[in-house]
Amino acid sequence: MANYLIRVQLPDRPGALGAVASRIGSVGGDVVSIDILQRDNGVVVDELGVGLAGDHLLGLLRDEILEVDGVIIETLRAVDGPLPDRHAELLDIATELFVQTSPDALLDRLADRVRRSLVADFAAVVDSDTTRVMAVHGDAPGEDEMRSMALWAVAPLSSPVGADESGSWPSDPTPGVAAAELVRAGVVLVVGRVAPVFRSRERQWIAIMGELADHGWRELA
Q1: Please, what is the angle between helix 200-220 and helix 103-117, to 10°?
Q2: Which of 108, 120, 142, 145 has the most C-beta neighbours closer than 10 Å?
Q3: Count of the separate structural domains present in the chain
Q4: Are residues 108 and 75 located together in one domain of the fold?
């Protein structure tokens, strides 16, 4: 079985998710996880972890899902290895953060694990006062862009900044970047991903990781 993450928008009505799961089952797919990423204005964004016999069934799978009235597929991504378990992963990352032996190592590990967990293009930690980039993992934009993102993020953390359709990283707010301020450490965690856009639950998850790291930083400092 090959594993895939399928992100769908569907109407917030009884039976819609069951109809999608039924369509997936009709092509031999197995829904093994469901994450509700956002619910707003009558629309739900769910990410389904699906096991499928092979990529030769992907076209048929898409067609079946889109047969459900009102459903839109945002992304369909292959997953190397097992499908993510967000609850177990949260505990695992928290444990890793609290066994670090220096503040710098903790911030570096935070950026690394958050980027990998969210399959983001990059994650960076930027000093709130000097806008110095303290840790970065992934295919990040230039330091000036990251400093701009961090400065925007702390005043206030209300709208995302990120990549446009060409894949560049402008300073104007777009849905491509999420951020979390670590108040005690005096830094900002900036996470960027061209697609799919960050949803409210993912932003909440980033904020939780930032808060845990901030507590760990305080103990080390």
Answers
A1: 160
A2: 120
A3: 2
A4: no
- For the chain, what's the residue count? 221
Report the C-alpha gap between 221 and 110 in whole angstroms. Answer: 16
Tens digit of pLDDT for each residue in 40-62? 889 999 999 999 998 889 999 99
C-alpha distances out from residue 51 to 11, 30, 65, 117, Å: 24, 5, 15, 19
Q: Where does a domain end: 18, 53, 79?
A: 79
Q: How far is CA 208 from the centre of its chain?
A: 13
Give the global pTM. Answer: 0.79
Whether 117 and 175 map to the same domain: the answer is yes
Give residue 175's pLDDT: 60
Tokens 């899902």: give the residue: 65
In terms of Cα–Cα distance, which of 27, 20, 25, 112 is closest to 66?
A: 20
How many CB atoms are closer than 10 A to CB 18? 10
**Pair (59, 111) in one structural domain:** no
Give residue 159's domain range: 86-220
What is the number of H-type helices and E-type strands within the chain?
A: 6, 8
